[in-house]
Amino acid sequence: MNSKRKRYKTCIVLLAAVLAFGSALPAFAAEGGGTTPPSGTTATISTGTAPAIGQVALNATSYFEIKNVVMMPEQGNKTVTFTVGVNNGGSTDLQFIDYWPRLRTKNGNQISVRVLPQDKDKNRIPAKSSQDISFYATVNESTDLKDLIFEIIKWDFSMPEADFVRKIGEVSVPDDYTVVTPAGKAHTIQIASNPVKGTIKKVLMSKNEKNYTPTIVLNLENVGSKSVAVPGYQYLLRTSEGYMYPLDAKVVKDLTINPQTNKDIDLTGSVPVSVSTEGWQLVIVQNAQDLKLNLPIAFFALPAVSDTDGVDTGKAFSFTNKSGTYTTQLNTVQRLPWEDQDILTAGFTLSNKGPEALPIPELTGYFKLDDNVKVEAKLVRTDNVIGLAPNAEAQFQFIGKIPYTSQFGKVKLVLQEKTGTGSSDGKTDQQTAASDLLEFVHRSELMNIPYNNFGETYKVTSIGRSANYKVRSVRTYGGKMNDTFTALLEVNNLEKRPSDITKLVAYFKTAEGTYPATISEIKTKVNPNGTAMLLLSSNVGKGAPTSGMSILIGEAVTEGKLTEADKKPDAYVNAAAYWLPEEDFTVQDGFKDINLDPYKLSISNIRSTIEYVKDSDVTPVKIKFDYNLTKDSMFVSNMEGRQLIIELEDSDGKTKMKSSLDFKDFEGIASDKQGTTTQTETKEKMTVGEHVDFEFKESIKDIKYRINQLKTFKLNIYDSFQGQKKLIATKEVNWFETAE
Q: Which residues pair with 618 in a beta bridge?
C-alpha cells in the first residue's frame, strides 16, 4: 500500500514538473512529420556567423557549442540571439528535447530563452552529425554581452530537489568578444540555410550644412548551391557613440542572387554633421513579424571613404550663345519610383554672372546611360522666371523615364540649346534642331535622395514656393482585410504672401517595396508663416510591420510644368525622403489630452442614464459628458474621411452603443479670442472649444430588465479614417455614477 502511494506521489510530482516546464520547452513535431505555420508567418530568419565563445562537453564524443552570440539595442531593452551547435559524435541518435540552453547574468538574473521559429522542429541529431539551433531572448537595456552566462541543462526527473534539472556546463562571453566584421573582411550570412558572403565594397560621402549623406555599397556573394532571395532587411548606420541611423536600400525588392554570383546593394541615409564620423558600422537587422522583434544579423566596420572623382555635381561650367554667357551647375541627379517605371531627374541652376540681363535660352537635352543608351528628357521650369537679371539664377529640371529594372553604372546629362525653327508641320526635329552645350557625368551609386531624420525640416527655396516640410506623426488604422498607414506632414509657408500648397507626389517605402500615397488636398491659400497639415495615406497588408519605413515626397509635374490643382501628375521632381518615427501603439488610460493630431481632446464629468418607457421593451440609454477640444489656429487641414468614434461597451458584453463624429465638423463653431466657448446647444457634433453636456444616445432592447446586472462599462475612443480605426483611449466607468 505504501509503495502504491509513493508511486502515486511521484507521478503527481512528475506531472507538475512537466506542466511547470512545458512553457520553457521547445515545440517539437513528431519525427517524420511537421507543423503548419500560422497564417502571416514571417520568412525564415537569417543568421550570422559570429565566433564561437565556448563548448560544453556532453560526453567523450559529443558536445554543445555556443556561437553567433549577438546583441541588438531596442527601445527600452536589447535583443540577444545565439546558436547552439549540437555535435553528436556518438553511435546513436541524440534527442535535443532532453536538453535546453539557459541564459542568466553574472549577478544571477534568469532570462527566458525561446527558439527561432524555423528551428522549432529540430530535435533528432543523427549519429556522427551536427545541427545548429538558434535562439533569442530579451534583456534589459543595461545588460551587456560580457554580463551573460550560457548554461546547458538536461531534464532529469530523478532530481526533484534541483527542479528536475541537471546542469551539464556553462560558458561565459569573453571580455574581448566582438561581433563586428573588420573593414575589408567578409561576413557569412545564412539565408534559408544557404551561405552568402557580405563585404563592404566602398563608402562614398557627401555633405551639406546640416547632414552627411553616406553611400555604402554592400556586396552579397552567393557561395552556396541554391538561388537565394534576399530578405527585406533593415540597414542601419551605427556611430561610435551608439546612435543608429536608418539607411535606404536601392533596388532590393525581389532581389535574387544565383549560385556563385554576386550583387551590389547601394545604401544611403543622413547623419547630422555634429556626429563624429569615426568608428561607423553597418548593422543588418531582420524584422521577425510574428515575434514582433528586430533580430540582429551582421555588423560591419566601414572602410575609409572612397574618392568621388569623375562626378560633376556641384561644379560650375559656362557656355556662350548669341545672347551672352551663362553659368550652369548640376545640383542633383535622382532615380525615383513611378508606377511600373523609374524617373531620372537632373536638377541644375542657370545663373547670370554678367553685368546685363539675359533671356532664358531654349534648352533641351537627354540622358545617356553607360555612354550607350539614350533616354529622352523633358525640361521642367520649376522657377517661374522669364529672364535672368545680373547675378540672378533660376532652377530647372530634366526628367526622363526608364524601366524600373534598368541597371547602369554611369549617367550623363547632355545639355543642348534649340537652334532650328522646326519642320513645315510646326514640329521641331530634335535630331537636327539642337546643338550641344555641356555634358555632366554622374555615377549611379551617388544618385541619392536627401534623407531627413525624424524631426528634421526640409527647406524648399524655389521662387514663389518657399516652404518648410516636416513629418509630424504616423498612425495605422486597422481594417478587416488590410490596414491603412498614414503620416501627417507639416508644410510651413515661407512666402510673404498667402500661397497655394504645391501639389505633391508621395510614396511610402518599406524593405519590401514602395506604396503610392494619397494626399489630402488643401484648397485654400496658406497665410505667410502659416502651416498646412497634409494627411498622406496608403493601404498596406494586414498587420504588416511599419518599423523602418520612410516616405518619399516630390513636387508634382504635368507636361513639363508644376502640376496645377485640376491636373493629373505625370512625373515629379525635387524629391526628398523622411524617415518615419516608430508608431506609439499604447492605448491611453483616461481621457485627458487625447492625441487626435492636430487636435487634443479632454473628456470629463461622464454620466449615464436610462429613460423608462412604459409598455415598451426598447429603452433609450443616454451618455453625457463635458469636453474641451483644442487646435493650433495656425494649422490649415483637410480632415475628410476622418472620424472620432465614441463607443460604450458594457462589462457583460450584451450592451454596445457608439457615436461617430466627423473631424470636418470640428471647425463648425468659432471659438472666442481665448479659444474657448461654453455653448451647450450642439448635441450631435463636436466643435473646437470647451463644452458641457454633450450627449449621445441609443435605444436598446430589454436593457431595463437587466438594470440590476449593470455594473461597469468601458468608454472607448477611436480615431477612424475611411472606415478603419485605431483605439487610442479607454476608461472604465460605473453605471449611473459620475466619472471625472
A: 701
* C-alpha grid cell, residue 339: 508606377
In this structure, what is the dihedral angle of CA atoms 316, 321, 325, 330, given to the nearest 10 degrees? -20
Is residue 462 within 8 Å of 452, Cβ to Cβ?
no
Is 451-579 in CATH node 2.60.40? yes
CATH 2.60.40.1470 fits 186-301, yes or no: yes
pLDDT grade for 32, boundaries at 50, 70 and 90: very low
Topology (CATH) of 315-419+433-445: Immunoglobulin-like (2.60.40)
C-alpha cell at 370: 553607360
Nearest of 460, 467, 463, 470 to residue 492 by alpha carbon: 467
Q: Which CATH architecture has domain 588-670+682-739?
A: Sandwich (2.60)
CATH architecture of 52-172: Sandwich (2.60)
For the four alpha carbons of 416, 422, 428 and 432, in that order, the dihedral sign comes to negative
Identity of residue 75: Q
pLDDT tens for 648-663 read 988 877 778 889 999 9
pLDDT value, residue 43: 62
User: What per-residue confidence (pLDDT) applies to 727?
Assistant: 96
Check if the beta carbon of residue 491 is closer than 8 Å to that of residue 472: no
Identify whether the C-beta of residue 341 lies closer than 8 Å to the C-beta of residue 403. yes
Report how far residue 253's alpha carbon sits from residue 566's, in angstroms, rounded to the nearest whole number: 33
Which segments of the chain belong to CATH 2.60.40.1240?
52-172, 315-419+433-445
Contacts 24+ apart (CB under 8 A), 610-618: 610/703, 610/704, 610/707, 610/736, 612/704, 617/701, 617/702, 617/704, 618/699, 618/700, 618/701
Q: Which residue has the higher pLDDT, 427 or 477?
A: 477
